[in-house]
Design a protein that fits this description.
The chain is α/β, with parallel strands linked by helices. It has a single domain, classed as 3-Layer(aba) Sandwich (Rossmann fold), CATH 3.40.50. It contains 7 helices and 10 strands. The chain has a 6-stranded mixed beta sheet with strand order 6-7-8-3-9-10, sandwiched between helices. A 4-stranded antiparallel beta sheet has the order 2-1-4-5, with helices on one face. Helix 4 (117-130) packs across helix 5 and helix 5 (146-158) runs parallel beside helix 6 (176-191). The longest helix is centred in the last third of the chain and has 16 residues, at 176-191. It is globular, with a radius of gyration of 18 Å. This is Macrolide ABC transporter ATP-binding protein.
Length: 231
C-alpha cells in the first residue's frame, strides 16, 4: 500500500542544514491501522507529509499502491492525493464561513468526473452520517464543540472514499472522552477497509492501533505489532 525506501529529508537554508529524516524504510500494508510516535521535532509530521504526497524526499523513493511517485509532477501528485488520500489535522482546518455540509464537500470540487452538485451533496451527507452529524449539516464550525469539529474533519477526509487516511494528532486538541470517541470512529473506518496512519503523542491512543512505529531524531527506532490486522 505505502512503501518508503531509504527516505531522507533535509531542509537547507543558506546557513543551516536540518536533517528531518534519515534512512527511513517503512512498508504499510492495506488495511493496517498504524500509529507513529516520538518526541517533538523527531520527524513524525514530516514522515506523514511524505506519505501524503504533500512534500518530496531529499533522497529515497515513495511508492503508493505499487506506484513509484517520487518523480511525479505536481499535477500528477495532486490527482493521486485527491483520489486516494484523506487528511485529518489536529487543528481541524475548517472554513468558518461555510456550513458543515459545504466544508465536507470541498475535496469533491477538485475531482474530475463528479459532474453534479447533487451527487457531491449526497456523498457529503453520507460522510456526515458516518460520523453521527446528520443533524448538524446546516450549522457552521463556530457552533460546534471541538469533538464535533474533528468529526466534521473526518467526514471531509472520507467523503471521496479514499483508501488511505492520514491523521496528524487527531485527538491532540480534545479531552479524553472526546478523544476516545474520535478513536472509535477511526477504528470503525479501519474495519470498513481504510488504511490509517496516525501521528500521536498519546500512548493510550497508540495502543488502540495495530502497529506502533517510533521515531527519534529522524530515524526509525522501533516498529512493533500491537494487534494483528485481519486485512
Amino acid at each position: 500500500m505505502i512503501h518508503l525506501k531509504n527516505i531522507e529529508k533535509v531542509y537547507r537554508t543558506s546557513t543551516i542544514e536540518t536533517v528531518a529524516l534519515t534512512k527511513v524504510n517503512l512498508h504499510i500494508r492495506a488495511g493496517e491501522f498504524v500509529s507513529i510516535m516520538g518526541p517533538s521535532g523527531c520527524g513524525k509530521s514530516t514522515l506523514l507529509n511524505l506519505m501524503g504526497l504533500l512534500d518530496t524526499p531529499s533522497a529515497g523513493q515513495v511508492e503508493i499502491g505499487g506506484q513509484a511517485v517520487t518523480q511525479y509532477r505536481d499535477k500528477e501528485l495532486a490527482q493521486l492525493r485527491n483520489q486516494n488520500i484523506g487528511f485529518i489535522f489536529q487543528s481541524f482546518h475548517l472554513i468558518n464561513d461555510l456550513s458543515i455540509l459545504d466544508n465536507v464537500e470541498i475535496p469533491l470540487l477538485y475531482r474530475k468526473g463528479d459532474t453534479t452538485g447533487a451527487s457531491r451533496r449526497q456523498l457529503a451527507q453520507e460522510a456526515l452520517a458516518k460520523v453521527g452529524l446528520s443533524h448538524r449539516t446546516k450549522h457552521f464550525p463556530g457552533q460546534l464543540s471541538g469533538g464535533q469539529k474533528q468529526r466534521v474533519a473526518i467526514a471531509r477526509a472520507i467523503v471521496g472514499q479514499p483508501s488511505i487516511i492520514l491523521a496528524d494528532e487527531p485527538t491532540g486538541n480534545l479531552d479524553s472522552a472526546m478523544g476516545n470517541e474520535i478513536m472509535n470512529i477511526l477504528q470503525h473506518l479501519n474495519t470498513e477497509g481504510s488504511t490509517i496512519i496516525m501521528v500521536t503523542h498519546d500512548e493510550a491512543m497508540a495502543k488502540k492501533t495495530h502497529r506502533l512505529v517510533r521515531l527519534f531524531d529522524g530515524a526509525m527506532v522501533g516498529d512493533s505489532v500491537l494487534v494483528m490486522s485481519d486485512k
